[in-house]
Model the fold of this input.
Amino acid sequence: MSRDMSEVMYARHGGLARRRWHPTGLPARCTAAFHSWWTRRHGHAPPAHHTGDAPPPSATAGERVLWRMRTTVKDEPGSLAALCTVLAERGVDILSLQTHPLGEGTVDEFLLRAPAGTDLTAAVSLAGGRDTWTERTDAHDLVDPPTRVLGLATRTATDSAELPLALRQLLGRCTIRSHPSAPAGTVPAEGSLEDTVIRLRAPGGGVLTVERPYLPFTPTEFARARALVELDTRLGPRMPRGRDVLTLPEGRDISVRRADSGDLAAARAMHERCSTETLRRRYHGPVGDANRYLNHLLSPRFGRTLVAQTDAGRVVALGHLMWDGDETEVALIVEDTWQRRGIGARLLSRLVSMAAEAGCSQVYAVTQASNTGMVATMRGLGLPLDYQIEEGTLVVTARLDAVPARGAREFGEPVGRFPAPRPATS
Done:
């Protein structure tokens, strides 16, 4: 794998344009158009502060809304009491409170239930609050912080692929980048915190950076992130080993399971059996480059990969779920002689289930506008879809708010989330 390939993984999100090819294989002539679309869709502006008498979006008169709020006050007696007083005067319930002492002040983080239209920023400013940040939230944040952190630690201990998701849920909206070729010595053993950027030594080598441009990290958040990364490092590579069985229309069984770098040789052999057109549709570039991406795509550090294989162990399809900043990408490749049997649809259905279980709000697939098979497979999910096309490159986004909530599951348990997939060209 070429140097800093994981940085390129986030090129669409962070605007990096260091390589001719993205991991998905987008050619250089499409990169500018795709980045233009992505920039319009994914800005890094801070969340809107809803102020004034008008209710925020989706709120109605009389409704009580859950908010997360942070504000900085002077570290002196009575400062917290003043904040609580002005909130109480406006009928705001304080559901939880954390304090983060800093050098010259204290960051107070609240979970609030406020009447729709409450101007929280203006209210706390009257009590001396500054650098106030608010964000709409939901009932998931009602879990107390220690329980929430323990749950994230459990997820991280179960699966190497969980670390980026756990960090994102721990720290809120942020961009996570891994730099495998960066010397570990460039970051102290204990990591570093610089305002809105956390740098830690990555599990397996290199450097891990976490950045959120609109809200500085507190020392408490830094300590929690460092503890999660240290746990991941100590446990080493690990992955659930269950599997599902897919019965094809002709009655033959195919197994579907998680994959990692140990499947590299079998994945390369599948590439060699695929036609030039199949490889081009998947990687959008010269077919000779296809194998270059496999090390990265099979690493659980950057997402999750599923393989479909025969009883003899022959890999006939790959499905990838890749963490991409605030978004999640899905991609499929099915060996030519195994297409149109529902394998790609089953892989996609399972990947989307995994994304929903991980708390992702949507997934997207990048393909060619002429790849009607992939479009049909996405439509087969039965989820709301958005389409964006630029110079022949099609981005299909599935919104996961229509996916029923349920607990995490692993292979071997009933799938039960989507209807049986319809066979489609993959």
Summary: Residues 1-57, 405-426 have pLDDT under 50 and may be disordered. Residues 64-137 form a domain with the Alpha-Beta Plaits fold (CATH 3.30.70.260). DSSP finds 13 helices and 16 strands in the chain. The CA atoms of residues 342 and 422 lie 6 Å apart.
